[in-house]
Amino acid sequence: MAEKELIGLDAQPREAEKKPHLKRVLSNYLPVSNLERATKWYEEVFGLTVRKREPDGAILILGDGQWLFLLEAAEKRTANFFTRQWDGERYEMFSLTFEVENIAGLHKRLRESGAEVEPLADHGDCGLQFKFKDPDGNKFNVWQDPATE
Predict the structure, then answer these.
(1) Do 117 and 54 belong together in one domain?
(2) What is the value of pTM for the model shown?
(3) Integer distance in angstroms from the first to the last C-alpha of the chain?
(4) pLDDT score of 117 more than 70
(5) Does pLDDT of 71 surpass 70?
(6) What is the pLDDT of residue 8?
(7) Which of 34, 55, 72 corresponds to the end of one domain?
(8) Residue 16 domain flag
């Protein structure tokens, strides 16, 4: 092999090491107890577009194009977990944080829908946030960029 070819082969791995191998999260999967009920709730409360609805699950499209899959769990489950590393000895942690542009409007909408919703909190440089649970008990955080408030 020519010297130039060897140098070219050698340079490729070094460039690849600088860039993360994972680009972005394309989709998230959520357990639900009743697919039809959950799909309707996410569609109505959040205005999400249903891309595909079938017996095996539903694909909902977020504002940036990311997919949110709803799948019926074989047994009662949520995407939540407990940790000591967040807020207390046994904190029920959310699995996702959603970014929004009108956090106060969504907070009101969720309360009106009957969802379990925590108060809206101002975290200074980290912006406005609140937590809520969907009808199946999946817990989420909602955040608005302070630059858009």
Answers:
(1) no
(2) 0.83
(3) 59
(4) yes
(5) yes
(6) 54
(7) 72
(8) no
